[in-house]
Amino acid sequence: MEAAAAAAAAAAAAAAAAGGGCGSGPPPLLLSEGEQQCYSELFARCAGAAGGGAGSGPPEAARVAPGTATAAAGPVADLFRASQLPAETLHQITELCGAKRVGYFGATQFYIALKLIAAAQSGLPVRRESIKCELPLPRFMMSKNDGEIRFGNPAELHGTKVQIPYLTTEKNSFKRMDDEDKQQETQSPTMSPLASPPSSPPHYQRVPLSHGYSKLRSSAEQIHPAPYEARQPLVQPEGSSSGGPGTKPLRHQASLIRSFSVERELQDNSSYPDEPWRITEEQREYYVNQFRSLQPDPSSFISGSVAKNFFTKSKLSIPELSYIWELSDADCDGALTLPEFCAAFHLIVARKNGYPLPEGLPPTLQPEYLQAAFPKPKWDCQLFDSYSESLPANQQPRDLNRMETSVKDMADLPVPTQDVTSDDKQALKSTINEALSKDVSEDPATSKDSNSLKARPRSRSYSSTSIEEAMKRGEDPPTPPPRPQKTHSRASSLDLNKVFQPSVPATKSGLLPPPPALPPRPCPSQSEQVSEAELLPQLSRAPSQAAEGSPAKKDVPYSQPPSKPIRRKFRPENQATENQEPSTASSGPASAATMKPHPTVQKQSSKQKKAIQTAIRKNKEANAVLARLNSELQQQLKEVHQERIALENQLEQLRPVTVL
Amino acid sequence: MAVCIAVIAKENYPLYIRSTPTENELKFHYMVHTSLDVVDEKISAMGKALVDQRELYLGLLYPTEDYKVYGYVTNSKVKFVMVVDSSNTALRDNEIRSMFRKLHNSYTDVMCNPFYNPGDRIQSSGSVSLSRAFDNMVTSMMIQVC
């Protein structure tokens, strides 16, 4: 009976709401201006969270017709619970407003429910007659209510509408890449009663409320452990690939939080003209983490195939992805550096949110701009390498806090959560500290924890080798043998370079055949010596070796035929070094470095003498060759001269004829 | 300024062909098709020597009354064929060479895109083209017909 009456009231109210009734007129549901605004805003939030622009700002609430816009059960339940009414009362209210009957929360149902909540909070019995009374606005402990909250902020709401799809689609596209996210999304409806409370604080916490604030915090803190536990068993079944269960929900939440704070950042940037193309700090962090999951070294690049697999997961069409690649790969090298990757990622995210792709790369996405604006990556890399608790680490706990507080897919409105974070920090410190060590070392947003863990030591070795290489380069110049000989590109003189190399590496702790552009070390050169059989073949081989000339093969051109006795003497050492060389090449430069120097150090002096002698011999041979060549060319020159003279004579003979 | 530009794959099927719209496109398609024989002939003539020594630019493949057809082969046996108007005498050899070089560079850029599968058509239509840069470059080389 009550339900029927409520249904009738609902129907009548529906007419009122559809007509944009401001509370005047016959319909039983009387809403004052303030109430109307408040309710419509709340409804918009709940509806907006349900999946993208179902409602609009308060001015357009009147357009919301019942049935076309529904508030999702999750945020609505969330909101109701925030009203601090007992569950039974809430049940009654839900029944009364007709949502149970129709199965969803339309505008009318929602408005009636809100009115009933207000009634209940005022102490009135929950009856349909209550809605006829003049009541104060319903109080939601975690909500910005009391009417003073920014109703007149359509820009914000519009911004939120933009961000909500942003958030949801971004999450949909990329969280799906993480296994647990998939489950999270599927399970979120069932988990919403548990999960929504943590999200509510940030949702409704726009204004630092005095009265509700402490309650908010306490309720938030109480609620937090519950969803974690609830999540963990749900997440567990799938969590094979990622790290421990404790980290998984946190990581997922981190990713959610990240996108959530991204949403907030987007709102902050809404004033900028090129807002969709500007990468915010949070987004940048997220992209960098994703980059690191694919490629541990932030200063290196991602190959095309790897990037292709990664971006294909975003479910955009191939032509679009190809176009995005065209835009973002500025140097057209088939690989993405970090700024290029960020630009591409950002374009994909924007596209998924419905932004049309630009004709050209926007200025804020240019690689130079990105590198200038966000010089972080290298810094982050070092920090991660050192596992230090510096600024990004500090940001991490902040992110974790935010993550733990907000979390939800249906983000209603981005809320400045900094107020919450500082407070929640203490509350959640224990969980944070557990997760922090893992999260600092791992990328919160990725599911490939094992990969990233492995990647850490790899990145360390990368950075260490680069440092060593830099050192080596710095130390290269001062070598005893005269460098200028390197300029000789002739076959025979190339031997000299190789011969002189032995002294060079002696000083350096050999990074053996390190990545390109480093002069060859003595050990490789010696091994080269071993590999060659004879003088003459070496000479002839040298040109072909020189022709190969790739930096990796720098050792090759340095053929040398040291005199046979010398070679024989070097052979055992060279063999030793040669044996070492392949092993070092395989094991990596860092480890190779240590092995190499030992055998070579002792033989340096004698080798140097031999090297000098052979160098002298090579020089002489080169001189001979060049001299021969020179004479031949001189011959040719003379012949050509003679021909020219003959031709000129002919011309002279012919000319007087024509003149006449 | 070319009248028709075509990119032909190694297996002699067209990857991209574009001609000035006013003319009968079928005629150009036929000319490009017949020019493939000449290209093959030129390639095989130098085939005995090392590939390195073969020059990429093939030069004038064959002249007709109204048109001249130039050819260019890459190291991966992808052929570019360009048809120019015979009346356009101002076009010199090195200009043709530079046009082919630009074509080659744009083609390499298309190749660099991991989303492009070698052997696919270089789409020049559609809302989001697969190779907008390539298209724009070709457009700049074609005769501007209003």
From TrEMBL, chain B:
Quote the Pfam families the UniProt record gives: Sedlin_N (PF04628)
Domain of life from the UniProt record: Eukaryota
Q: Which InterPro entries match?
A: Longin-like_dom_sf, Sedlin, TRAPPC2L
GO process annotations (BP): endoplasmic reticulum to Golgi vesicle-mediated transport
Main localization is cytoplasm
CDD domains on file = TRAPPC2L
Provide GO CC annotations from the record: cytosol; endoplasmic reticulum; Golgi apparatus; perinuclear region of cytoplasm
**Is Endoplasmic reticulum tagged as a keyword?**
yes
Q: Which UniProt keywords apply?
A: Cytoplasm, Endoplasmic reticulum, ER-Golgi transport, Golgi apparatus, Transport
Q: Where in the cell is it found?
A: Cytoplasm, Perinuclear region; Endoplasmic reticulum; Golgi apparatus
- What protein family does this chain belong to? Belongs to the TRAPP small subunits family. Sedlin subfamily.
Protein name as catalogued? Trafficking protein particle complex subunit 2-like protein
Species of origin: Homo sapiens (Human)
Give the classification, highest ranks. Answer: Eukaryota, Metazoa, Chordata, Craniata, Vertebrata
Give the gene name: TRAPPC2L
